[in-house]
Amino acid sequence: MKKIVLAACFAVSACSKRAAAPVASPLQEAARAASASSACGRLIPAEWSPSLPVPALDGGRLVYKMFFYGRDGDPAEGFVFHHAEGDATLAADGRVLSCSRRAGPVSRLPKFVPKPGVTMDEIDRRELELYPELQNAARLYAERRELTSDEKKKVAAMAEAFEFFIEDGRGPDYWELSRDFWSWVEKNGGARIKPGRQ
Amino acid sequence: MSRYPALALFMALAASRSSAAGSSPFDILAAAAAQVRAGCKAVPASCIELKAIHAGYLAELGKLDKCAAPTKECTPDFVRATFLAAEALDQREYALPFEARNHDTRPLLRMSLLLSQKATFAWAAVAPGNAIEVFAGVAEFAPKEVDALCRIGKATQACTAANNSLSNAQLLDTLLLQCENKPADEPCSFDELDSRAEIAETAMKFYTRATKDEQYQLTKLCSFIKYGQDRLAILMDRDLQNQVAGLEKGVADLTSRHGAVDAQKRFQEVLETYRQASIEADRISSFGYNAQQSNRERINAAATQLAVIRSQLAGGAAGDAARALASDPGNAGAVLAAAYEGPRPNAGPLQTAREAAHIDRVSVPAPSPAAPVAPAIIAGDPSFVDIARGLYSNDPLKRADARRRAGLSYTVGNPGGRAPLVHAQGYPDTCAIVAQQQVLVDRGLVPGNDPAGVEERLGRQAVNRGFFLDGTPTAYSGSLLIEHGLIVTKSAGAPLDAMDSAVRRGGMVIAGVDARYLWGKTAPASLGHAILVTGVEIEHGSGKTVGYYINDSGKDPPSRGLFIPIETFQKAWDAHTKSYVEVR
């Protein structure tokens, strides 16, 4: 009886409409799933975290480079992330062109400390917002021309948004991924990624 | 087409290693110029040759500018000549006195890699879909590289690892020749090829123990291993075509001979063909060979049918359920209820049917109970009012709990029965091992009373078989289950609906997820993780999924039958690889 009454109550209440969730860009989808691509599917453990993709020019062609890294620890004790342990190159449309592993001993970042007050909702929102900015910056970078002051502001904003996703000690990994891009960012809007940044 | 069709691949690999070291073309050219000056100073007699090699690289790089955009001059022959030139220049550099080369960073070799990288991209543009037919004597040069590394004397560990890698690569080369020289109608068997695959994995494993600087001195060794992997992939791909065709034929045969007296024996034969085809498909993917993507789909389709046949052979309720589920997978609850009316005894009809059919008892899954017990979504004994409030709660967990308590949803799967299978994983990277372990324990294939010991053993097995590389790559997720004779289907890049259908069939599903959402942890990048999905909560009437029950080994104590609302699971799914393995 209790169940029937409750069911009736529930039936009266209309389900509240939910706002449509923002959709991830194809590049974001590709970066998330890169470790399972045919190029990386065997090389890169599914447990490894993917970096954000960084624009690069390869023979004049725009590509995105990203790296993967493992971790130690557990949810209770916290995590120690590794420096980059594998790499992938994505075409501008998100196809994974190549994948490789780095060799040598594992190198670790300082113990990860989450930014205080930041929620996963905020991280998700910022990531969704970053991708269009990143792809816009990539387009400007590939054009290799003088930027207008408005474009430079956008590049600077992108760099600032990107900075949010870089853990302490991770800077060199991103710098090494595409030095030329970060140098271009620095020239056009103020670099946030510096070699040796800790 | 040559039998060495993947040079472009290992050139790409070498090129990516170059980029892995963070070297821009400018760095490489500057370092090479500096090396020429230093080499001339160290060995004046080699100065002319050093300069000539350097000039040769610059000239070849300049020529490739013609391929920056499509031109008539940039033909396959033109690009092929560049590859050969890079190889020839590299050999000339190698012939220089030791002191004339910077053996730590090999700047001239890096020019060669840069040249190869550019040529690889040019080749992809002028001859898309065709592998380049060039191969130079890496088998001869690899031992010289290892010898040179060991002569430095400051890298003993690297020397040992390089020698181990080299001896495995040489063994692989010899054994592959045996297969390649066999008549076409008597090719190497799966077992022969698979043992060679293990050697190839071992060779690469030792190679990757070198630091990146050491790897610059061992590029020919890398190419030698890759060369072996490519040849093996070609042989395996040929075998795989026969295996998949044999699997499909076997399944069709079993379907048409339902009830035949020798059906059990034939089933075991087909099951073995499935195992071989599945492992072979993963191996080929492992070696980066561009095999047909449809192989995995064909194997999945055959595996689905094979699982139904297996249950039919078992007869009784399991067979009925399997047939009904195959025809109406969305109606799992009703089907299972019909198959098992009333309380199911411990050694139920399935057990009897297995014994009667003489089927290996462990290979047949127990269907999920018709009225599964699920752990509490939220522990406690809420009042009527609390439940009523919960129905309107904005918290999906409270809402799901209230709905279930109000009888508005029902459970499919066996989250309560499967909850005890999980233990906290012993290592940060063994989640997929433990997820597979739970399935194997459930099927009685490994003991359940020593979880840590079994995790160790399965981990070692996975390493030895090449299924584990500091974690489980997606391609090898579920491969331990196949090795133990289970039937699984693998999917990557799938929508959550596909995994949802799998869970609704009542079996166990290993899913790849971003654990940040499950653990309530904030981090800037996803935390890849494998969990076992043991059941699903479905809303009456609408049939919508309310959430999933999972066993999660990543926490200590582990989560046993933890309910995850669909909203949360969707996020965890979307932020990762959208991959799952369904145990059939």
Description of the molecule:
The complex is a heterodimer of chains A (198) and B (584). Chain A has helices spanning 2-12, 26-33, 120-143, 149-163, 171-177, 179-189; strands spanning 49-50, 54-58, 61-69, 71-74, 78-81, 86-91, 96-101. Chain A has 198 residues and is α+β, with helices and mostly antiparallel strands. Chain A has one domain (20-189). In chain A, strands 1, 2, 3, 6 and 7 form a five-stranded antiparallel β-sheet that branches. Chain A has a two-stranded antiparallel sheet with strand order 4-5. In chain A, a hairpin with a 3-residue loop joins strand 4 and strand 5 (78-81). In chain A, helix 3 runs antiparallel to helix 4 and helix 4 (149-163) packs across helix 6. Chain A starts with a helix and ends in a 9-residue tail after the last helix. Among the domains of chain B are: 1-136, no CATH class; 417-583, Cysteine proteinases (Cathepsin B, Chain A). The model of chain B is unreliable at 1-24 and 329-362 (pLDDT under 50). In chain B, helix 11 packs antiparallel against helix 12. In chain B, strands 1, 2, 3, 4, 5, 6 and 7 form a seven-stranded antiparallel β-sheet that branches. By secondary structure, chain B is α+β, with helices and mostly antiparallel strands. In chain B, strand 4 (528-539) and strand 5 (545-552) form a beta hairpin.
